[in-house]
Amino acid sequence: MAVPGASLVPILLGLGISLAAAHSPAGVECIVFNEEYMTCTWGSGQTLTANYSLYYWYENRSPVVECQQYLWEHGVRIGCRFEQSEIIQFKPFHVHVNASQDGRTLEIPSNCMELQNLVKPGAPVNLTIRNMSSNQLQLTWSSPYPNAHCLEHVVKYKSNKDTSWMKQEVKGDIFSFPSVDYEKYYTFYVRSKINNYCGSTQLWSEWSVPVFWGSNATSKGMAEEQLQWFWIHTVLIPIASCLLLLVLVVLLVRMERVWVIIMPRIPNPSKNFDDLFITHNGDFQEWVGVPKDVVESFKSNYSESICHVSELPYEPLQDNSTHPPGLPGPQEHGPYKNSYVGA
Questions:
Q1: 4-57 pLDDT tens trace
Q2: What is the 3-state secondary structure (H, E, C) of the chain?
Q3: pLDDT of residue 27
């Protein structure tokens, strides 16, 4: 809950215009975030259309200064950001906002603020649970707020069998849980605010990130399921992929062998005869290593006379009647008469 900086004037009497009624912001709210920076905003939840300007000063310390870092939304100024060097606590802080539109200006004054009462610390971090005894737990945490001694805390916790949250105020940064049930599953949150020694505020920090302790069947089941998925994704799937790849390689090798058996390759013997034609000049007997005496034994060692054959012309007989009996006639000899000469 933010503390409004001032009661703003809803209308400006005597202007005779609707500027104040239409464009006066609902209020100026300033919050110091963890003593790191501060924002002052106006018109929360309203649609602003006028051009706003913010001026501020510290009482008895500095002159009036205009905001150096405006916050914008939809092209309209909705606030101002102050850096850590511009924040001074325990000094009265004044701010006022001017709204201008159509050449007319409405000045919206504010009351004095005490910035130490507007501090919102950061959420606690590093929540840790320790077993102190058989049935006692200790919850510790740390805070990003620079002045830890100025903080008070609230611990919120609940088991999986509870229907409502339990809250416990804590002055320091240690919370002891006296009695725990090991059959339950507990959830813890912590938040902080400035104590009365360092300021007067109701601005609580955001709740911390939760921390858990105990036994929960559902959580165990989820953890086991996550572990199973981890093994499946990181172990089983890679191993199965490698085995599948190996099987595919083996199948490819076997398929190649089967294909060679079904469709054998035609051999090319040309390389085997290179030595026959290059080294032995085509001499097959020399190439195969036949002994010379065997080669000589197959050569002929004799000669034959040449026999000449010639054909003589035919001479017919003049009178068949005068042919001596007992000798064949011309028709019996045929159209030719051959003679042979032997050498």
A1: 443 333 333 333 333 443 344 557 889 999 999 999 988 776 777 788 899 999
A2: CCCECCCCCCCCCCCCCCHHHHHCCCCEEEEEECCCEEEEEECCCCCCCCEEEEEEEECCCCCCEECCCEEEECCEEEEEEEEHHHCCCCCEEEEEEEEEECCEEEEECCCCEEHHHCEECCCCEEEEEEECCCCCEEEEEECCCCCHHHEEEEEEEEECCCCCCEEEEECCCEEEECCCCCCCEEEEEEEEEECCCCCCCCCCCCCCCCEEEECCHHHHHHHHHHHHHHHHHHHHHHHHHHHHHHHHHHHHHHHHHHHHHHCCCCCCHHHHHHHHHHCCCCCHHHHHCCCHHHHHHCCCCCCCCCCCCCCCCCCCCCCCCCCCCCCCCHHHHCCCCCCCCCC
A3: 74
